[in-house]
Design brief:
Blueprint: E1 2-3, E2 9-16, E3 21-28, E4 35-37, H1 39-45, E5 50-56, E6 71-81, E7 84-92, E8 100-102, H2 104-110, E9 114-115, E10 120-121, E11 125-128, E12 148-154, E13 164-170, H3 175-187
Parallel strand pairs: 2-11, 3-8, 4-7
Antiparallel strand pairs: 1-2, 2-3, 4-8, 5-6, 6-7, 6-11, 9-10, 12-13
């Protein structure tokens, strides 16, 4: 949890879907009339959407129309805040740099304990898709899910001689990386 210079509170949560478990942050906004999600998050996280029966107009805080126009779709997600569970429609809209906004429906359903002086919300929050319960971790050694080993050069302090090489894993590979890995495997 942190307070930005504009006194915004970001709530950390774990997003759970059928295929992933990822840490995210949501802007806590008691003035937002709904919960919102940015289209880039929907695409990146491969969340299932549903068409709205009737398009909804959305306005920014300053009263201007949102640049993405009317809202045509939503994502239904289950929000669990300290054991208080509620299903919320997250309307898909261009909400700027934030990927998620927890609006008034979240406050009403969860009644979270917010310390406005310190900018912290008490407890834990998870947000899940309807099929999150079917998640199973990938078996170890599964080639298409197993990230490729890579070495990353870290230079703390940027001083000569302070280089540290760390082994990490990279989820996506280029053709050059695949060829280099194949050549290394042939040598071994």
């Amino acid at each position: 949890m942190y307070i930005a210079r504009n006194h915004a509170i970001q709530v950390p949560f774990q997003l759970r879907t059928r295929t992933k478990r990822v840490d995210q942050k949501a802007l806590l906004d008691c003035g937002a009339t709904e919960c919102f999600i940015h289209p880039r998050a929907v695409e990146c996280l491969k969340l299932a959407t549903r068409k709205l029966a009737k398009p909804r107009k959305v306005q920014n805080v300053d009263g201007t129309p949102n640049k993405s126009g009317e809202i045509l779709e939503a994502v239904d997600l289950l929000v669990n805040n300290n054991g208080q569970k509620a299903s919320h429609a997250f309307f898909i809209a261009n909400i700027g740099r934030d990927d998620f906004i927890l609006g008034y429906p979240f406050f009403e359903a969860s009644n979270p304990n917010v310390n406005w002086t310190t900018g912290r919300i008490e407890g834990f929050t998870t947000i899940s898709s309807s099929n999150a319960h079917t998640w199973r971790p990938s078996p170890k050694g599964t080639k298409h899910h197993d990230p490729t080993p890579a070495w990353v050069r870290c230079i703390p302090g940027w001083e000569v001689g302070d280089e540290v090489w760390l082994q990490t894993r990279v989820a996506k590979t280029t053709v050059a990386q695949q060829l280099a890995e194949a050549a290394t495997d042939k040598k071994a």
